[in-house]
């Protein structure tokens, strides 16, 4: 039987205090802070490289409206690309997230939203429409105003390097598992 | 319930030129006239200008020259937040040796809220951190300056004519500089509709200078207007490219329609103002000069002189049924205050909003003084005030809770309003010291007199219970 497990690639820094449930794959150079929650209920989650998932962020592949369907539904995979930043306290249920996106603190992204690349969802903005957000869009303000910026946000390489050096000094890390191996 | 403490639940009436009802926290108290004053019955004067982000003080003359804008700080044209300067390292050829490249710092402006950057409108990165950013020139500046000069001269001439007429009428000659110095501050010079523009005359040329006659050409009227572009109706609109009205009107010089032409503008200065009572010309509020300080040199706010009524709890209000409402009275001064409440008379002209009858306690309520050290003084005996338990619910340092009976009169009332008069004694410490009759060298200070003040208070108690 297939036992869903967490596959953490080498080079990723995942703190032990984070909660990861279900079938989750985490790519190299990704940092998962303590108290972050990645929950794969209704399907697996695949997280790419170079992502930064901060404290109390919640990435959840859950059933819509939190209702578990009686009959078996096809599990949908949630894919998250590279160099994304999930800031403190955000909630992301978007099934497809591209590269270089930033979801700022306490933002709420719904299940039917598809983020392409370079999108910035501002702090406390709730986006639960059913649409594809075009590239380089910034959603900001209490009225969720939008504008398009000319360049994508820079990948947080400096921050990632710093965290990958410092976090292991203060936290235990979850064991990395090579995703390509079939055994343990 | 926190909503009972909302400031607009309890309003005090200010009897000035206009009858204004405002919560006590927004009112001032002139202790020379012994009356409440609101923002509308005081005169506002500008004290100083400062920039809200760099907190730099600016003298008024310099502020006027720079059109009331800060020299260092910029506003995001997109979301009006303050822009911050960010630096990047770009490889640039060394000036000595063109073949080698070294990392040089380039600065650009960025907004932390909406992520706008100066590169979005095509502004090149500057090599200095501050002072390199220029606002775009207005193409009409020359024409506007010429018009302003012409009208300044006209205003100056009109003012001279007026002053000459005044001087001819009066026996004593008022020097010409007098009317210029006291600009719009005093009531003599306040703008009356229809009067010639005197505000510009303050900026006019000095007395001794030769005044050359400036003539302006009238604006030419054009026969042909620029036609609209061909694809005006057929081109699809790209909404992110179009500026909002607010963004457009914040730059009245250009009013760009496209977001790629929104240039940042210098930040507006804010000002500190001082308030002055119109009757006795004493200062009611004078802030400190330093922009970083929030204290006041003179702060005659009403909450530090007048006892404040607050609503503590409201039971279910029913039409035509008597209910008891619990109110609190707080004494802001350090001496004991005696308060009497009285209902409004039937034909009271101030009583226009009340929709319920009120029965207030008839006895005089005594409030203890505000003692800042009371909580630390354990040995102090609590003062015994012999409170009537039907009237006074509780007593705590300088606050008492008391009951009033409310009988709503209107059916289907969305907001039951009651009003009553509150009469308290006020010890006026600002009373001028009366010199003793004997003409002694050291005049003994007269004991501060107590006067009785009456205020009209209105309370909004909320809707009737369903």
Automatic annotation (TrEMBL), chain A:
InterPro entries: DCTN6, Trimer_LpxA-like_sf
Gene Ontology cellular component annotations, sorted alphabetically: dynactin complex; kinetochore
Keyword Cytoplasm attached: yes
SUPFAM superfamilies per the UniProt record, alphabetical: Trimeric LpxA-like enzymes (SSF51161)
Keywords in alphabetical order: Cytoplasm, Cytoskeleton, Kinetochore
GO MF assignments: dynein complex binding
TM region(s), chain numbering: none
Claim: Repressor is one of the keywords in the record: no
One annotated GO biological process: mitotic spindle organization
Family, per entry: Belongs to the dynactin subunits 5/6 family. Dynactin subunit 6 subfamily.
Record function comment: Part of the dynactin complex that activates the molecular motor dynein for ultra-processive transport along microtubules.
The name this protein goes by in its record: Dynactin subunit 6
UniProtKB/TrEMBL annotation, chain B:
UniProt name for this protein: Dynactin subunit 4
GO CC entries: cell cortex; centrosome; dynactin complex; myofibril; stress fiber
Pfam families assigned to the protein according to its UniProt record, in alphabetical order: Dynactin_p62
UniProt superkingdom: Eukaryota
Assembly, per entry: Subunit of dynactin, a multiprotein complex part of a tripartite complex with dynein and a adapter, such as BICDL1, BICD2 or HOOK3. The dynactin complex is built around ACTR1A/ACTB filament and consists of an actin-related filament composed of a shoulder domain, a pointed end and a barbed end. Its length is defined by its flexible shoulder domain. The soulder is composed of 2 DCTN1 subunits, 4 DCTN2 and 2 DCTN3. The 4 DCNT2 (via N-terminus) bind the ACTR1A filament and act as molecular rulers to determine the length. The pointed end is important for binding dynein-dynactin cargo adapters.
PANTHER family, alphabetized: DYNACTIN P62 SUBUNIT (PTHR13034), DYNACTIN SUBUNIT 4 (PTHR13034:SF2)
Keyword Phosphoprotein (UniProt): yes
Predominant cellular place of this UniProt entry's protein: cytoplasm
Subcellular location per the Swiss-Prot or TrEMBL entry: Cytoplasm, Cell cortex; Cytoplasm, Cytoskeleton, Microtubule organizing center, Centrosome; Cytoplasm, Cytoskeleton, Stress fiber; Cytoplasm, Myofibril
Family classification: Belongs to the dynactin subunit 4 family.
Keywords per UniProt: Acetylation, Coiled coil, Cytoplasm, Cytoskeleton, Isopeptide bond, Phosphoprotein, Ubl conjugation
Source organism: Gasterosteus aculeatus aculeatus
């Amino acid at each position: 039987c297939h036992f869903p497990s967490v596959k953490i690639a080498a080079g990723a820094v995942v703190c032990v205090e984070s909660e990861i449930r279900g079938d989750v794959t985490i790519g190299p150079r990704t940092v998962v802070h303590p108290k972050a929650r990645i929950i794969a209920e209704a399907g697996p989650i695949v997280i790419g490289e170079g992502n930064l998932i901060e404290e109390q962020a919640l990435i959840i592949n859950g059933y819509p409206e939190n209702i578990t369907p009686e009959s078996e539904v096809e599990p949908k995979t949630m894919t998250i690309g590279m160099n994304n930043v999930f800031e403190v306290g955000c909630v992301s249920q978007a099934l497809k997230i591209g590269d270089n996106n930033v979801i700022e603190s306490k933002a709420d992204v719904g299940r039917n939203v598809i983020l392409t690349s370079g999108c910035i969802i501002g702090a406390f903005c709730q986006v639960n429409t059913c649409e594809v957000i075009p590239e380089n869009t910034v959603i900001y303000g209490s009225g969720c105003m939008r504008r398009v910026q000319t360049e994508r946000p820079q990948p947080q390489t400096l921050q990632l390097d710093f965290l990958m050096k410092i976090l292991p000094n203060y936290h235990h890390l979850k064991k990395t598992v090579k995703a390509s191996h079939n055994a343990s | 319930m926190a909503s009972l403490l909302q400031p607009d639940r309890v309003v005090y009436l200010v009897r000035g030129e206009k009858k204004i009802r405002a919560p006590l926290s927004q009112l001032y108290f002139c202790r020379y006239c012994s009356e409440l004053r609101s923002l509308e019955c005081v005169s506002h004067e500008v004290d100083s200008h400062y920039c809200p982000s760099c907190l730099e003080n600016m003298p008024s003359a310099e502020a006027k020259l720079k059109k009331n804008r800060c020299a260092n700080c910029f506003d995001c044209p997109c979301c009006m937040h303050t822009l911050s300067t960010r630096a990047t390292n770009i490889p640039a050829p060394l000036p000595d040796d063109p073949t080698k490249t070294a990392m040089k710092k380039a600065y650009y402006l960025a907004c932390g809220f909406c992520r706008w950057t100066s590169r979005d409108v095509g502004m090149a990165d500057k090599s200095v951190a501050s002072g390199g950013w220029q606002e775009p020139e207005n193409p009409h500046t020359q024409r506007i300056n010429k018009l302003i000069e012409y009208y300044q001269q006209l205003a100056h001439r009109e003012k001279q004519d007026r002053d000459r007429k005044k001087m001819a009428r009066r026996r004593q000659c008022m020097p010409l500089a007098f009317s210029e110095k006291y600009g719009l501050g005093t009531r003599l010079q306040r703008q009356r509709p229809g009067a010639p523009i005197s505000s510009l005359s303050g900026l006019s040329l000095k007395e001794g200078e030769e005044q050359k006659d400036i003539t302006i050409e009238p604006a030419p009227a054009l026969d042909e207007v620029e036609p609209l572009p061909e694809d005006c109706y057929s081109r699809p609109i790209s909404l992110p490219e179009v500026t909002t009205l607010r963004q457009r009107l914040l730059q009245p010089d250009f009013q760009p329609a496209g977001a790629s032409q929104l240039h940042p503008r210098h930040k507006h200065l804010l000002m500190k103002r001082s308030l002055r009572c119109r009757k006795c010309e004493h200062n009611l509020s004078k802030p400190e000069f330093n922009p970083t300080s929030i204290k006041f040199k003179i702060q005659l706010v009403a909450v530090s002189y007048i006892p404040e009524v607050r609503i503590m709890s409201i039971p279910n209000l029913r039409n035509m049924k008597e209910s008891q409402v619990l109110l609190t009275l707080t004494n802001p001064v350090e001496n004991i205050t005696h308060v009497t409440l009285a209902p409004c008379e039937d034909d009271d002209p101030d009583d226009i909003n009340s929709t319920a009858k009120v029965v207030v306690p008839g006895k005089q309520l005594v409030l203890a003084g505000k003692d800042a050290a009371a909580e630390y003084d354990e040995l102090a005996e609590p003062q015994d005030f012999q409170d009537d338990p039907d009237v006074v619910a509780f007593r705590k340092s300088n606050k008492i809770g008391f009951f009033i009976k409310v009988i709503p009169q209107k059916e289907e009332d969305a907001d039951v309003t009651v009003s009553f008069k509150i009469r308290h004694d006020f010890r006026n410490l600002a009373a001028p010291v009366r010199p003793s009759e004997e003409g002694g060298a050291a005049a003994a200070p007269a004991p501060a007199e107590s006067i009785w003040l009456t205020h009209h208070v209105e309370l909004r108690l909320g809707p009737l219970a369903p």
